[in-house]
Specification:
Layout (H helix, E strand, L loop, with lengths): L2 H11 L3 E6 L7 H14 L4 E5 L1 H5 L13 H11 L3 E7 L7 H8 L16 E8 L3 H16 L3 E2 L4 E4 L14 H17 L8
Helix pairs in contact: 2-7
């Protein structure tokens, strides 16, 4: 590696990190594709991103607050959020609220309770909800906002609610509704705008 490459790597590591959390257990989903579009918008602002999709969250054991050890997957998730300046959370709407796999991942942030910056304190948090119909999108966004408030985070003003009954995503990072793409990019842009104001815990 040349000196110039060393400088480039060092500079990139100082850029704010935005962590994406979202997806479903059953493979790459509409939720995960929506989250990827928002994270791509963050990257185009020059920031780093790291995504924990459905497969990543499926490897997390059910959160046990009394456990004395954590798996490597649990540790990697917690350390990523500790090092983040912002987060984007995407959840499908299951029976009017967020999915269990997303909630389990967020419960694991209790590991940061005694950090200098606990939970999602002072972090901008973008929100995305997907559901097969409009009813669950609103209640899922409301649930996500309540959880982020409880974790001391700052939900960004705009949240993307996506009805997958009418919006279809493709494998190339697009969707059949350009307005949905713009909504997801707006989530990413708002998170990127405020990410530099948040200091990571490590």
């Amino acid at each position: 590696m040349t000196f110039e490459q060393d400088e480039t790597v060092a500079a990139s590591e100082t850029l704010p990190l935005v962590v994406g959390i979202g997806g479903t257990i059953g493979g790459v989903s509409s939720t995960e594709r929506a989250l990827r579009i928002a994270l791509d918008a963050v990257e185009k602002q020059g920031y780093r991103t790291q995504m924990f999709g459905g497969a990543d969250m499926a490897r997390l054991p059910l959160y046990d607050p009394k456990a004395t050890t954590r798996t490597a997957d649990e540790q990697a998730f917690v350390e990523a959020v500790r090092g983040a300046s912002a987060v984007i959370i995407a959840s499908p709407g299951y029976h009017g609220s967020i999915s269990g796999v997303v909630k389990n991942a967020l419960d694991l942030l209790e590991e940061t309770a005694r950090d200098e910056r606990p939970y999602l304190a002072d972090m901008p948090v973008g929100l995305i909800a997907t559901a097969y119909g409009w009813q669950a999108t609103g209640s899922t966004i409301a649930a996500l906002r309540s959880i982020v408030h409880a974790l001391r985070g700052w939900p960004t003003p705009f949240a993307a609610a996506i009805n997958t009954q009418v919006t279809k995503f493709d494998d190339e990072g697009g969707a059949n509704d350009p307005a949905v793409i713009e909504q997801l990019r707006l989530v990413g842009h708002q998170v990127a705008r405020f990410a530099p104001l948040s200091e990571p815990a490590n």
